[in-house]
Amino acid sequence: MDSNGNSDDRSLNPDAGDIVLGIGSSRSRIIDQEIEEMQRKLRELGEEIDLAIVSLNEQIEMTTDQISGVSAEEEDPAVAIARHKSEVDSRSIYVGNVDYACLPEQIQAHFQDCGAINRVTILIDDFGDPKGYAYVEFAEVEAVEKALLMNDTKLLNRPMKVSPKRTNVPGRTHPWGRRPFQPYPTYGKFPRFRRPQGYSPYY
């Protein structure tokens, strides 16, 4: 008891401070455990997210490969036909000034030393008569170079004209391509119309 008559709690309860300190340290341990538990859950969640991202990237790569494969397989038929025709033409030659009585077997025998021949085609008109030229398709591109050296060689006493076969491009019959249809000649921006026959500006 002090000089005023008040009692000193610390002297009566000497362990009170220890109890307060014990409660504070217990709460601190609980908070630390909760923080550690939250950190652990966050780490696990981060690992799951990383695995999900990796799996998603793999699925995207697989889908891209499948789309690329389908695009390669489902090629436009017109493009495939044009590519095949261009490849065949690169192994073919044009033979001009062919005798009208010449047979495909004779042309094949004439060029057989150049390489293996797949086909000999002699063009004919609407009446079934030969047009005087032919195409020879070889099995290898190298045979074309050898065949070109046989230009002006004679078959049935006629010198043949040998040149590489050209690939026909649709719409390119004219050297500059197809010209637009113009019913009347044009001068500047306005067309010049034809005057009817017998027209006279005076009466």
TrEMBL record:
<dbReference type="GO" id="GO:0003723">
    <property type="term" value="F:RNA binding"/>
</dbReference>
<protein>
    <recommendedName>
        <fullName>RRM domain-containing protein</fullName>
    </recommendedName>
</protein>
<keyword id="KW-0175">Coiled coil</keyword>
<dbReference type="InterPro" id="IPR012677">
    <property type="entry name" value="Nucleotide-bd_a/b_plait_sf"/>
</dbReference>
<dbReference type="InterPro" id="IPR035979">
    <property type="entry name" value="RBD_domain_sf"/>
</dbReference>
<feature type="coiled-coil region">
    <location>
        <begin position="28"/>
        <end position="55"/>
    </location>
</feature>
<keyword id="KW-0694">RNA-binding</keyword>
<feature type="domain" description="RRM">
    <location>
        <begin position="91"/>
        <end position="167"/>
    </location>
</feature>
<dbReference type="Pfam" id="PF00076">
    <property type="entry name" value="RRM_1"/>
</dbReference>
<dbReference type="InterPro" id="IPR000504">
    <property type="entry name" value="RRM_dom"/>
</dbReference>
